[in-house]
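Help!! Second protein's tokens look totally different from the first
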Amino acid sequence: MAARPDEDTAHVLPYGGDGAWEQQLLDHLRPAGRDLGRLVAWLARITRAAVCLQDAHGRLLAGERMPLDAAVARDIAAGRVAAAALEDGVRHVRLVGIRHPGPGPAAGAVLAVARPAPFDRNAAAILNHTAGVLELLLRERELADAGRRLRRATADLRLAILQLLMVEDTVSARRVAAGLWPGLLEEDTARVYVVETSAAERDRLADACADSTEGRALVVRCPAMDGHVIVVGPSAEVGERLRSLVAGHPGTFLGGSPRQRLALTATAYGQAVTALAVARFRPERSAVYAARTRPAQLMDPAGVRTWAAGVLRPLDTLPHHVRAELLATTGLGLEFTAVSAAKVLGVSRNTVRARMDRVAGLLGADFSRLSVRAVAHLALNTEAAHGPYDPGGPAGHPADRDVLADLLGTRALRTWAEGLLGRLDEDGRDLRATLRAWTAADAHAERAAQTLGVHAQTVREHLRAAEGVLERRLTGGGTDLYETVLAHLVTGELPVPELGTTNREQPDSAVHG
């Protein structure tokens, strides 16, 4: 195909030279008409030509693929030639470089138009003006893509900071945050909030949370729950702004934690999720983790700390960072599911299970049993609240069933447990019996239904009703469920479990049902 000069021979186009095509071309710059495919199709139609728009690497962007002189196309893409006119005896081809918005002469794309008739002045004008519009559209698309990449990178950075906080690496979290959000994590404490909406509305809600808090909080799209936005806010003003935001957005809910040390972000996150369950029953659609009496507060303080140290003592031989990583992962795995914990931490589900299996093996704990998970959760939370056991300190009690039974056997705990579970006695559906059977069945509705002689759906309905009565999240697992299990241990409706025997035959059993 040889290059040849332009010809001025007139050829009738579908639209005359009275300005109609100019107006139609301008229409492609309107917000509703900015589409490469539509513009290229219009150019093909008005010039009665085949049109190909490809990027500098030869990838088709719009139109139809056509054979081109590779050397000429490369010269245009590299910016060595701005445009070229070619003819092979059958068709007339024009190639135009669409300038790249960045520095240098290289083109961002190559526009090729091939037709049987030569290009007259009218066709050439249409082609040149269309190339200018394509340059604008490509530049807009590149800017939009850059904006999306920047937003994605910022979101990934926020998530990375949250994941560092979740594993108690506050030093690295502050270092990462300092570049973009100076001062955000300067304080040693913060509150964690979880805002819930539909998955479809989550992105808009996350943007609204970021706008509302004005850089005073870490706003993260939850990697585990599609409808959740996690907000870490050192200032009390963050909570006030989020409550105002939720009040103005029907169908949204807000759960918040009390102020916690940054190293306890994972604990605060669990508390915020627990409060979120309560918020669903509140007319204002928001709740803060209640400062209600916790079973650990009713135990002998020195006794429960020593007992927890005895439970966790097998981990004391591990390097500090390994021990912290294992306990942080196990804490999240017990609070939620292995899948959710993996998403929050940014690791695989198999990694979470492997870490939890290692902890279970060291502790001699069968995490497939709900009561064992509740006891392990108590030990981990005790250490989180009071700090790790000092191996150089006095020896603690052995972590056996009798020691735990003594700790659970106080009159104060008995009163608390009966008061909690007694709320269910007023319901004529015998919710208490259903909850007792379900906890005894390790939170498996089908097994509980077989025990009770009812349908599994009945068990699930009773559990949802019990959540409303107790104002506790049960079916999702976590702190509320484990405290309810402890209440059953205190009343004797469940036997106190014994650590020291693991489920060797089911290493991949679910973290919780």
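Here's the second one for comparison:
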Amino acid sequence: MAQRIEDYAIIGDHQTAALVGRNGSMDWLCLPRFDSAACFSALVGDHENGHWTLAPKDGGDCTHRAYRSDSLVLDSVWEGEHGTVRVTDFMPQRDKAPDVVRIVECLSGEATIHSTLRLRFDYGAVVPWMRKVDGHRVAVAGPDAVWLRSEPEVKSWGEKFSTHSEFGLKAGEKVAFVLTWYPSHKKHPRLVDPYRALEDSVADWRAWAAQCRYEGPYREQVVRSLITLKALTYAPTGGIVAAATTSLPESLGGVRNWDYRYCWLRDSTLALGAMISAGFLGEARAWRDWLLRAVAGDPSTLQIMYGLGGERRIPEYELPWLSGYENSAPVRIGNDAAHQLQLDVYGEVIDSLHLAERAGLHAKKHAWQLQLALMEFLEGAWREPDEGLWEVRGPRRQFVHSKVMAWVAADRTVRSLEANPKLKGDVERWRRMREEIHREVCERGYDAERNTFTQSYGSQELDAALLLIPRSGFLPPDDPRVSGTIDAVRRELGSGASGLLLRYSPGEGEVDGLPGAEGAFLVCSFWLADALHMVGRTEEATELFERLLSYTNDVGLLAEEYDTQAGRQLGNFPQAFSHIGLVGTALALASPGHRAQALPDVEPATAGEDTPYEADTTTRTAG
């Protein structure tokens, strides 16, 4: 029986991540990067596709678990008839090679512990050759090698292409396992001291979390979400992956299964806003710099997503030997949506650069030239139909959100030119573009009879992204069309009594070209709370936000979606977009006067200057 998605917790080292279930089984791990082939793929297959279970021999789910405060170090505790056992899982920040450390300790009484390590490289397809060297187990297959050792050494044996260990522990005794990956053609890396690594990892995480400037309500949930975002950050480049997994389904048994181990430009503005507002300028700067490197080149070839280092080629293919999470096939690697035309990303990129500038991040001399190049392309392209922010695989449409974000691009460019007249650019030209887009959207994207904006021109369908209209500054919160849109989206896209929102009505493939339905999209419900707050309905916003908090799992994590009928999480996990939404809404609700503004009220940065920025929780966290 597969663990539920919310039964997993994440550990990571800022370059990759593993998922550990409540039963002590590590069912997902890609080495050495987030987007590398997995050596544990049981999450999207079965245990024969690779896992590492470490738990009391009696098995079963742990009694309780928690992260050590302000860290990504996970403690899982089993309280048995004869004793209590704790397993501590973490990945220390790496020197050169990634390590997974699992420390099992008997807290009281006595217990028998069993470990089963079933390594399967290349997403469960390759059984490695295992040998014993100097008391350690070494697994090799193709380019991959893994070194497993225990301190102290315990009895282990091979059986059915797996490595097993079994040993007894009494109160106060402990055993540490360390699994280390390295390229098979190189000498094995330096061995880490697992107990020193534990102390250092806890200290490192707590030192990082201490930078958080937010001290308002829901601080614990905010810090946990920020730690999760940090865990999804690829430290060498600053890129943030959308999730640590691939192909966790949007509907159990369905085909809406996608690879999210890449960096979406769409996340950029919201991620930057969350980090800046919470005081993490280093991470915000690294993400901004990744963004500039990734999008460099011909503006007409701008992609919606890139690899961890800004790679452009991430072809999509399927793994037929994997059955999928709860038989949700196919399992996909790569993502063909990378090459869709999604005009809203131009607005997202320009909004991100504008936000970074206003927050006082060190200005990049070429950033403005890049922004002008993007604007020149968008000037001729914004009228075209596209696939929209939800990456539909059906026909292109004139999506209203895409037009609104084209307006955002023009608006932020005008704002920058007005704030700094020394910048090169034709401010009147972009003002005219801004006015033209605004006029067209209000004429063609608004249904006056229903008093709501629509998903696309001439459509009766709605879209949760319309809730971003007031936050973008396209219309002020007190405009009656904003309230009308909020009410219409809530009424038509609401998912049962939960109050959670679908992102749109799939209509059996009429919009997105795919069969089946999907769960409520969690970030959309955070957007709804934001919109309610902006129009002064803060009590409703707070009620919805606290309901959303109740959907986090026992260690504070959220997937992409929620199945309101089955009462469980769906989609890739943990999801950056969901946690960005949580942080943004919490900071907005903490604003004095309980009102949110459309744009952060900070002074523009001076070119070549790195100015300090004080987190201002009286404003919106993004765009």
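Reply: Different proteins will give different token patterns, so don't panic. The CA atoms of residues 355 and 623 lie 7 Å apart.
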